């Protein structure tokens, strides 16, 4: 009788230990998945920031070029007016 009781207790302990191990293993998997999801989000956010910065830089460069062209035209118009005044 005593031997059977110990065997049943051992089976119960093994079962409890196995269940605990399964929970820990699942918890580790969940923890890794959450970390991976967070890393993906951070990477995406960085990508978005870089994309926004790239778009802003491109727009700034286009604005700068546009302003230079406009200033050149204004300078030419001033020179034409000055030339006409001095020519008359």
UniProtKB/TrEMBL annotation:
Region (Disordered): 1-88
Protein's name according to its UniProt entry: Uncharacterized protein
Basic and acidic residues composition bias: residue spans: 1-29, 36-51, 58-88
Taxonomy of the source species: Eukaryota, Metazoa, Ecdysozoa, Arthropoda, Hexapoda
């Amino acid at each position: 009788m005593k031997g059977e009781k110990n065997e049943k207790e051992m089976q119960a302990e093994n079962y409890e230990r196995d269940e605990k191990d399964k929970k820990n293993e699942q918890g580790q998997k969940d923890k890794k998945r959450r970390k991976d999801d967070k890393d993906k989000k951070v990477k995406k956010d960085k990508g978005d920031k870089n994309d926004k910065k790239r778009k802003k830089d491109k727009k700034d460069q286009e604005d700068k070029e546009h302003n230079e062209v406009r200033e050149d035209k204004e300078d030419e118009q001033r020179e034409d007016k000055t030339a006409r005044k001095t020519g008359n």
